[in-house]
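Lab notebook, bench 4. The sequencing result for the construct came back, and we need a structural model before the next group meeting so we can plan mutations. Quick request posted to the team channel:

Model the 3D structure of this chain.
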Amino acid sequence: MRNTLLVVLLLLVAIAEALATGKAIFHNLAWSLAGLLLVSYLWAWYNVNWIQLERETPSSRSQVGKVVEERFLLHNRGPLPKLWVEVRDHSELPEHRASVAVSSLGPGRHRGWTVRTTCWRRGRYRLGPMTIISGDPFGLFVRRQRVTATSSMVVYPLMVDLPRFGTLTGELSGGGAVHRRTHYVTPNVCGVRDYYPGDSFNRIHWLSTARTGRLIVKEFELDPAADIWLFLDMEGAAHFERRVESGPPTQGPRLTGRPQMLEPSTEEYAVAVAASLSKHFIEHNRAVGLLAYGQHREMVQPERGQRQLTKILETLAVIRAQGHVGIGQLLSSEGSAFGRNAMAVVITPCIEVDWVAVLRGLRRRGVRGAGVIIDPASFGAPVDATPVLLGLVEAGIPAYRVREGESLVAALMNPAIPM
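Done. Here's the predicted structure in token form:
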């Protein structure tokens, strides 16, 4: 911009001198400067036109600790070369550096590049838009063209593979029969019906089919096993975050035997625990549900299968510790509707013992419970989680303690205090 103002100022001086003196040198200088401005402007305008930018994102989902890959291709559709072109990306994904400067792009040629970014923060992010910037060789004009196309990327929370969750895997096999029909094939046949398009052939009841002369399929009920509810505490006042320098953590806690990325906050650890437990129970064919009060009430009804895990991870990816409902109030208001066929796993950094009494009351009604305490003292908070752990054990409820920097696998495999 400064160079442009200088050339314009010289042009005005040359015109003034040409009109005042009539000398040819000032006329020639004025025409030369005017031509320079015109050619430079057209050159800069051309460099951001007849150009095409393609963006390819193979997957719209990723996970904390995994790598997102994007491929870009810049085409020169014009008849003349482009001396330089800068592509500036405005994506929201942290540490995603897709901006690049391309020099000497000939007519009909293209330039491609690949960007790989390690995800270190869960959430839903916008990819794009992008801005194409170029100018003339004299640095007089800079032109911009905005590529408005955008897409979204969902980064799931970190998950670890759990061999078991304490002794609860064995404890959860009990429970009364659940008289609720399901589209899953279970050992519990509750009746037959006519075949509908889409029913799998392993559901066909051949004896009834032979007797009636039309296809008859079996209907099933859920297994006599407890539904598992994950109560995730997202009350903002209960969480604590250890302050660190800005940017992604480079050496996070060893969660699966190798360094992983996890921010030093009780919120992120709690979400990682919820995601890991969801994965563990669903892999064991359990029906898992989720309850939390973050930005608003989040409730995922218990179901089985990979689709249910995806629903829970989609919720956990965007939930934030911005709620105003404590874990005790959450258990009181939501747990009262549970029958004997339920299991409540509480994940919280709250060290108040009041909610333990609520969980003990649910236990008297036949609702099994477990508590996972995200120890805020390990994040630098001046508190002690021992009383709430002892309170859980005294109530006959398994208690687990998760500390910053320690293995989630080890923390969730064995209770913090043996019962």
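The first helix runs from residue 2 to 21.
Will bring this to the meeting.
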